[in-house]
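Researcher: I'm preparing a figure for a lab meeting and need a structural model of a single chain. I don't have an experimental structure, so a prediction will have to do for now. The sequence is pasted below. Please return the structure as tokens so I can convert it later.
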Amino acid sequence: MAMHYYKQTRYKLLRTFCVVAQKENITHAAEQLHISQPTVSLQIQALEREMGEKLLERRGPSVRLTPEGKVLYQLVQPIAAGIDGLKETFAASLGKMEQGELNIAAGQSTALYVLPKYVERFNKAYPGIRINLHNVEGQSGMRMLLDDQVDLAIGPLLQVPDSIIYKPFASFGSILITAEEHPLAKLEQPVTLEDISPYGLILPPRNMSTWRMIDTVFRQHEVPYSVAMEAGGWEIVKKYVELGLGISIVTEVCLTGNEQISAIPLNSYFPPRSYGLIVRRGKFFTPQAKRFIEMFDENFFEEI
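Model: Understood. Here is the structure written out token by token.
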């Protein structure tokens, strides 16, 4: 009886530890677990005594994992997630996948232009699974992924950390877009960076990867450029290019064919932009996450 109780208690301690690690805040963890803050603190202290290591660094209400805490979290999180999702996993093993959630992080362009056909296909196959699409910018999607707030992320990834698996499934070239009557649209020879230089660019905000990529290419070729306008999102960028307020360099995935613009390939200057599945190494995948990932790459779980 004592051993049974001990095992139950250990799981409770480990689950509390996982939630605290994800929230990095004792108060927020207590709210999610529906227990008091002192109880959370006592459970963490009990786990630290059992493991013989300091697992958390406390900074007021916030906490951070120690190096030892990070090692334990990587070991424990898949187990805790597996037990929490046991009912869904059991149902899927019996050939039933009628309930559950799928959390995906994606940037605006990915959510608008890349994901819709996959989400539609998944919804037809599993109408009972609720998809939560988290619209993220910059590094916030990576943070959600590493904190296990989402099952996976989808989008471009220029640098792949050791803790991440990135599997590209599509790539798209870079396109110069101008108003239909713009002088660059009438050039007969291929457009160069020097041709683009005199005209103001309309770009997404500076913290987005597109701006960094364009800046890098112009600097490498030692060609000056100017920014006429910052605009959030490709739909806004395209609208102002149509109005003749500037030109832009976009990924071809955002072009639907309905725009009143001229599109000129710039593949000789810019490498293709890949979009891929982004997951955390060692992640426990729910059945619904596995099915969604396998739409992109049916051999994904054999290769990782």
